[in-house]
Write the structure tokens for this entry.
Amino acid sequence: MVMKWLITGGCGFIGTSLIGSLLSRGGQRIRVVDNLSVGTRDDLGGVSIFSEERDANAAVELIVGDILDEKLALTAAEDIDVIVHLAANTGVLPSIENPMGDCKTNVLGTLNYLEAARRRQVKRFVFASSGAPLGEQEPPIHENMAPRPLSPYGASKLAGEGYCSAYFGSFGLETVALRFGNVYGPRSSKKSSVVAKFIKLLMAGDPLPIYGAGTQTRDFIFIEDLVEAIGLAAMAPSIGGEVFQIATHQEHTVLEVANALNRLAQRYLGKTSELIHEKQKAGEIRRNYSDISKARNLLSFEPHYNLEEGLEKTFLWFVKHCNAFG
């Protein structure tokens, strides 16, 4: 059976990785909505041949536009089976600098596509959330914890989860919210997250900034594992209205990541970078990793990559594409 997907933010890191995976299965039709503020046509072209015209025979169709455009959302959701809503303002610091902009994009943008899904009778709506809604909690974090976001970004993602729950409860739309861990992997060259940032600095021979002592922890999930989880969430039966932690149930410090990447830089580039300790950032969660037992039980989700394997695959991708970073 041909599955028809709408992926917002489909030109980005996660979106292109998801599209590449879906196309490898065959029998998929994919429509992408992206404003090209981060991802580009070239990024999408790296995983697919796409059309910018409405073409029933095209495997991938690109619509350039903003998720705040209500009419566009309704048009894009026509004749779609599954919406994967990835488009968002991401990151704690940008949300602190511009909380109003973060709210408009992450809350109203999500609401536009939930409403479009309802009106177009889309079967499943998968929402990309994060651990940020839970704030500072004693890990491992899990779905039954009371949310206490520390940043506007966490608040906006919590609002998205709330609207997903409401659209399931009020309209029967099968929504699924996935709280992603810290995602890393190939194709992440435009991300500012810690793994991509450190690799680019290492390649340039620049110091690695460590905020505080570097003992803050995260649950780092490799992109291939995350993409698998999205596919499972789009297809698993009887999970409407549910929230899932999507991570690895492993806790690693930022310092561990920096040291592991320095070892890879020594092995493959013959050089390392100095670690520079800087002031701790406001709004940053001290410890964070996830209990993924619910995803294991209801989605049959199981991560396959440990941190060392994932970092090496990521590092080697960056080395291969080093010309892209000057």
Remarks:
- The radius of gyration is 19 Å.
- The CA atoms of residues 232 and 299 lie 6 Å apart.
- The chain has a mean pLDDT of 95.
- The chain is about 40% helix and 20% strand.
